[in-house]
């Protein structure tokens, strides 16, 4: 039986270059998003591609593009960008707090 509410929840797509061997990176990012957002997401889909492409979209909104954004997102940046699209009011706890610079307390 299909969960009809999953159709109305946001869908994340991670397009990754297979020739660059970025499957593990894409899978890890999918795991991070599912661990953080769980049932708030309808799906996380991995899409094989080529040409050095690595793009993350939420529904049709591009939230990260490797060439445009200068590399790969860290987990904090990725989760914040996805949150900003699916639930801007949501607090991500320690991910939203500034960490003090070295030597500050």
Keywords, separated by commas or semicolons:
single chain, 105 residues, alpha+beta, Glutaredoxin, 4-stranded mixed sheet, 3 helices, 4 strands, globular, Thioredoxin-like_sf, SelT/SelW/SelH family protein
Number of helices: 3
**What characterizes the major β-sheet?**
4 strands, mixed
- CATH superfamily heading of one domain: Glutaredoxin
What value does the Rg take, in angstroms? 15 Å
Strand content: 15-25%
Q: Under the CATH scheme, which architecture of one domain would be assigned?
A: 3-Layer(aba) Sandwich
Shape: globular
Fold-level CATH name of one domain: Glutaredoxin
Low-confidence stretches: none
What distance lies between the first and last C-alpha atoms, to the nearest angstrom? 52 Å
Q: Can you identify the CATH class of one domain?
A: Alpha Beta
Strand order of the largest sheet: 2-1-3-4
| Average pLDDT rating | 89
**Element order: H for helix, E for strand:** EHEEEHH
Organism: Komagataeibacter rhaeticus
Protein name: SelT/SelW/SelH family protein
InterPro entries: Selenoprotein_Rdx-typ, Thioredoxin-like_sf
Keywords: Redox-active center
Written overview of the protein:
The longest helix has 15 residues, at 23-37. With 105 residues, the protein is of the alpha+beta class. The protein has a domain at 1-69: 3-Layer(aba) Sandwich (Glutaredoxin). The chain has helices at 23-37, 66-69, 75-86, and strands at residues 11-17, 43-49, 54-58, 61-65. Helix content is 30%, strand content 23%. It is built from three helices and four strands; from the N terminus they run βαβββαα. Strand 3 (54-58) and strand 4 (61-65) form a beta hairpin.
